[in-house]
Amino acid sequence: MIPSIKTVEQLLKNINLGPGYGGYMEILKALDIPLSEWSPFEKWSTSHYTRNCISSCEEYELLLMCWQPNQHSPIHSYSFQEGWIQVLEGELTIDTYSVDRDAKTAHKQNSITIKKGEFYYLNDDMGFHCVRNSSSEQTKSLHLHVDRITQWEIFDPELKKFEITHPIYSSISEDCDL
Question: What does the pLDDT read at residue 126?
Fold first, then answer.
């Protein structure tokens, strides 16, 4: 069992040591970092959620995402990536979709809501998904991806269009190797 992690610096040290026997989930379970520790990484937008890089290298990517009420990601897929989301404040809902490439349609299959302090394991066996702030307050979430994400596929149901896109960051800390 990993001792309690109380600072972002300790978190980065533990992640850089690798997943260990308990995996990255054990590192995330050990987090006891005050919300004030995340403020240097926060950037907010009224028009879209923000992706703020805390640390990245070839082996992982650690992001703080900031969501205003009703902000959401597009319907997307990460090409068989895996990762974890921990809600630090507020709540997020993840909607999974069944996508028919020939008909260019998406049908919501399932929704799961993650509240403050809860975790969710993501892998793209789940297929296309959308993440949204389902609370009436600002939401902050920590996203740890194994292997840095360099591109993903977006499906726009209104335009009936698939598109490959690359990450855009709202802020990048000095620990990000992009």
Answer: 72
